[in-house]
Structure formats: structure tokens, C-alpha cells
Write a structure and sequence with these properties.
The protein is mostly helical. It is 93% helix and 0% strand. Keywords: Membrane, Transmembrane, Transmembrane helix.
Length: 30
């Protein structure tokens, strides 16, 4: 079950990273 927590944490970090990238891309496009 410890691996599951790590996997969820990694997915959360990736989601944050992708959200930041999307914001930067939208800022650059405008």
C-alpha cells in the first residue's frame, strides 16, 4: 500500500506540473 501512496503523490505532482505548463502556454499565446 506504500507504493500506492507514492504513485498517487507522483500523479499529483505531474498534474501540478501540467497545470503550470498550460498556464504558461496560455500566457505566451496571448
Amino acid at each position: 500500500m506504500h507504493f500506492l501512496k507514492i504513485a498517487i503523490f507522483i500523479c499529483f505532482e505531474l498534474a501540478n506540473l501540467i497545470a503550470n505548463l498550460v498556464q504558461v502556454v496560455e500566457f505566451v499565446i496571448r
